[in-house]
Amino acid sequence: RTLIDNYGKIILPFNSPENINSAKSLISSGANELTSVLSELFENADIIEQKLNEDYGLTELFKDYSNSLSPLIQYFVHLLTVGENDYFVTEIEDLFKDSLEYYLLDTAEKKEKFISICKSIYLHIQSKYKNQAGALSFADKTGFSVPSVIAVMTVASQNQEIKDLSSWSKEQLFNRKNIDNLTEKIRVIATLRETNLGIDDSFAQFNPELYAKIIVDWVKGDKLSSIANQHPKFNIQNRNEQEIEKRITDFIKKMNDIRFKASWGLSALEGIVRGKEEIKDSHIPSLVYFGVDNEKALAFRMIGAPRALSFSLQNILDKNLNEYSYKSLRNRVNGLTNSDWDGLKPSNSSLNGMEWKRISEILIK
């Protein structure tokens, strides 16, 4: 991809023995992973080329050989999107002859086979989706596979709760009195292989309504201990102190996983639903990720304020949010008096104003 655009650069500072070892370890790890991926590719080369001739072969290949094929196919989707089908097979061959994958192959036969597979996959995608440029574009933007994008587009066209644009407002999505709206959207993105949101490693079966409630409580500012009580694996009621500490620690890891996957999935789903319409004012993914329900609190989260404090700090803004820069927000926080901090401490916090002031001095710089 770095041959096509400016993204994907990795800067490795070789300025100390520690950094040199770290960089070599990263490169070695990547090379080993590529070798493993190539091994899977070659072992199943004949099956892969055969599947490409079947109606739903590409979808099955995504499912059966995701490790070796997903990055390759996603790269071809990117080429087809940015090049608007202007890339010829000979150019694809030249691109991959410059790749690390090609360099790692130790025989001419393997190199020829690798290029053959690349050509077959590229031509298949080009032919199969030449009239579905929208699907390719969304796959490139979101990082989701083409089959996943098409699946979402199908659901979006048929499900009123998904395609209704008014249901995508923060007031509707994070409405405790109507949890069905967010539940339906979580149900859709949980089925996608890319998010893995529907895979719950606990003994509890995945429940989209439970996850929707957790996300709503998260953005509404509820304490993590309270949110944890909703999940059967992390419930801390009637537990001893040691067990409570362990469950809260484990739930924080789980919550980080949920907020990342849900924000990514909702962002992609909303983009697909809106189609070519530009999403200017939607901060839904960021609100889910940072755990707040409005843009003013989000702005303070963006400059490093703790989640609980950001809800209070939004009250110090007396102008439209667009009139503030991150620097001016930091200055406003740094200029608060001790008396101001006494009035701004979160209502459900046991810390006093001065303690919150000290926390902000450490985190907001």
Question: Secondary-structure blueprint of this entry?
Answer:
Layout: H1 17-43, H2 45-51, H3 57-64, H4 66-83, H5 89-97, H6 100-104, H7 108-128, H8 133-142, H9 146-158, H10 160-163, H11 170-173, H12 180-190, H13 208-219, H14 224-228, H15 241-274, H16 284-290, H17 295-302, H18 307-313, H19 326-334, H20 338-344, H21 353-363
Helix pairs in contact: 4-7, 4-8, 5-7, 8-9, 12-13, 12-15, 15-16, 17-18, 20-21
Characterise this structure.
By secondary structure, the protein is mainly α. The protein contains 21 helices and no strands. Helix 12 crosses helix 13 (208-219). The longest helix has 34 residues, at 241-274. It is globular.
